What we know:
Elements (H helix, E strand, L loop, with lengths): L3 E8 L7 E6 L8 H11 L4 E6 L4 E5 L4 E2 L3 H11 L3 E4 L2 E8 L2 E7 L7 E4 L3 H5 L10 E8 L4 E7 L13 H11 L3 E5 L3 E8 L3 E14 L6
Parallel strand pairs: 2-3, 9-10, 11-12
Antiparallel strand pairs: 1-2, 1-14, 3-4, 4-5, 6-7, 7-8, 8-14, 10-11, 12-13, 13-14
Amino acid sequence: MADHDLLRVFCGPDGQHGNALAVVRDGSRVPDGAARQALAKKLGFSETVFVDDPERGVIDIYTPTLRLPFAGHPCVGAAWLLDVPELVTPAGVVGTRLDGEFTWIEARAQWAPPRTLRQYGSAAEVDALPVPPPGEWIYAWAWLDEAAGRVRARGFPGRGDGIDEDEATGAAALLLTARLGRALNITQGRGSQILTAPQPGDLIEVGGRVRLGGVHGGTQPG
């Protein structure tokens, strides 16, 4: 198995939680799509990133079952790890910046895969939701403090690939920000934090904390 870095993206203020991400820095060791898909399935994370050009920031993103032209938490994690001014994805060029403890990407809502954004009346309702059956990708959300832009959210991919709930989902946060047209401070999953802010030119920034979770090679992470 190709060596890979294990990151946690969109960690909470205490550095805990975050969505696990595998990054294969040397994408040439897994050169074709079928092999990349097989490795992403074996690793079992919601996404795995393959770096095809570390200097230019060219990346390739896979879930356990499909290739994605763009995804939020893989781009934030790759931006932090590679420390480049932009990332090149099949969807387009993603601007990046590091600002203290936060890593930010700048992308367009239309690059994000489709999500069903489902609003609930309270955070307690969101917390009480069971995992829905496989089908549509649901981003369940409610206001914690509407005036302050604070949101409680949970993400249910519905793909039937073993990822019943996504701990932190940048692409869904991007779509919710585009719909609401305002900056958001999202608490997702068990305690992950995602920050967003609309920018000129229909761009949206998505930011969060990234922590290095360890380097794995030859074994499947737990």
